[in-house]
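Bit of a strange request maybe. I'm writing a small parser for structure token strings and I need a real example to test against, not something I typed by hand. Could someone generate the tokens for this chain?
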Amino acid sequence: LSNAPDLTKRKSSTRRDPLHNALQQILGVTLTESHACPTFVYVATDSDTINSDNLSEVLYLRLLVDDPTYSSALEYLFAVHQRVRTESSGLNDADRLVVQSVQEQCINYSVTCLLEPEMFPSKVTPLEAFDALVRSPNASTSSYLEALAAGLEAQGGNAAVGRVGGPILQKLVSEVFLGSQSILAVESWSSPIQTIGSLVRIKGFATVFTNIPGFLLTPPLNGRRLQDATALGILLRFSTDAPDPAIKDLFANITKRSSRVDVNKSVESLRSKLSLLHNIVTDIFRSLLKGGAHSKTRTIQWLEQAMVVNVEGSKENPNPALVSTAGMLINLNVVLLRLCGPFLPPSTKHALIDATFWKCCSSPLFPQDTTKLVAPSSSSEQQQPAPPSAALASFNFITQCFFLTLRAVHIGPVATIGKYMRLLRQLSYMQNHMDDDPRGRAQFEMLAATKMIIDAKLLQPELLHDLVRFALLSANVTCRLCLSPNGNAVALAGLDLLPLVTPADALLVPSVPEHVVEDILSIVLFVARFAPDELKSFEFGDFLTMALIFLSSPQLIRSPHLRAKMSECLFEMCLPSHESEDRPTAAIPSAVAALVQSKLAQQHLAPCLLALYGDVEQTGFYEKLEHRWESQSPQWLSLDEAVREQKQSLLAEKERTVTSSLQLANETIHMMSYLTSEIQAPFLTAELEDRLVGMLNSVLVKLAGPRGLDLKVR
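Reply from user aminoacidic:
Good idea to test on real output. This should exercise your parser:
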């Protein structure tokens, strides 16, 4: 009884001690055994209050208690780390410092817990607890993980961070690899990829991720293995071209649907899932590039590998066993274009792009056997010493990013555009010749579904917008190559002298692949035809300048095909729609304004196009007919309507004659096949032998001789 007053005084003093109360709530402990409950675990100490002097001891004793509320000591430490935020309000500055020191102690004990698993009792291993913690993030997880990574590095260097982060990162990548490859299975791939993203935002774990086995590709080196055997390739491979019947089912019986609304919904559904993937993976790449020098270097190395091993992707019919899928390459392009975002707008950091890359870089990014804009003269090759070789890593990041994207665009979107255009021609042909044959209709349905699947990934508005921005930047850099010996930034607005008289050998032009200019034209032409609204927000001054330079200075570009394609772009973007009734043009207002206001265009465009009218005759049979049509379209529209109808009637009659002649030719060939299948002796007699041999030789000369390139197959 004599001790009762003292106990009352002690309880009241404790109740009035805000620091003790805050620490008790944070640690979830009580120093009074009678107050123990599931929320507060009893810890026996000599003191009756928690303060700065015994705080570390109380926390240590609490960690030794086997508490059923938490599955591991790490889970408890994270909970304590979180509660510091909520319980530190209302304290004076001195008490707040004591409370905040709890977080530091939690990190120290967490490091000990992870590096010395036997130190504290636990129902699961610390790495299992860490796995569960990173998979269920909240507002406090990021700051805790960042402090934990710093603590691990301070305790045991990068090896300690790798010992903790490496297994979970490898496990997450394995889950993505072993899960469904379909873009529709969002619940399968999104969670582990997001977890990887949350981890690599922390520099220490970014370094660990770039060091895990399989981050860089090992032999055999090809695009398919890059996609299936490297961590970043596995994250990027989800797209609409996965072998998933559910994707094709979205567009089943597409020609029988009465409304296009449900088709558009299916396309938008695919695009929304692709957009989610793009956002997560782009965040991962940004984190890796910001994760320190080592992480950045390894990521750039992977990007360079991705370009080099996918050289097969530039072919019209690539070997699918050697190249990454078109969807994976488009996903990679989305990432690279977003990384280029800060220097894509005009008047930003264009000048930092080092164009001497073409001559100095020893990287195999652009194959040596690639056709160049113009071949260097033999005299210049003998006179000029070889420039010093430089690796891709020796250039600034903007230059690295620009040239990586330049190559990626060629093997990704531009290659897919070519495939898409061939598919459209095939669909058009089948539609014009389709009858009641169920097999033909089924094939048409399959091709139409394939077309919609490609639409979902290729015609994404954001992708098209970024592609045009990059194409216009590439046009600016290309102009610099023609105006400055080292490709330095120049004021294109002040250009007033055409044609250029500088020899190509005095510039970087002989080192530039031809496909660079062709890709610019292909992108602009494709978007002008299929999504012209995406072009309306752009200025086309640099693009027009590039076209005028090459059209007026043919010594800088040897291919008449490319110069003809430039006129095709001008036709699509600048010709008013009413001037071409058969195929309406885009008539982009900003492009028309740039053309009308350009003094260079007023002086040089007409004579350049007149010279080009003759040059296009050197292109292929079908190409020159297309270019003739574009050149003569305004002249055709100026004819009297009666004259046009007469010419169209004559054309239709000739088409019927050709159709009949081809049918007769087919029947003749069929008859020859029938006659010679069983009766061969008469054709081997001396009288017919020479004639038959002569006929076959004549056919072979036409197929494989010097005029073999004139043969085209639709």
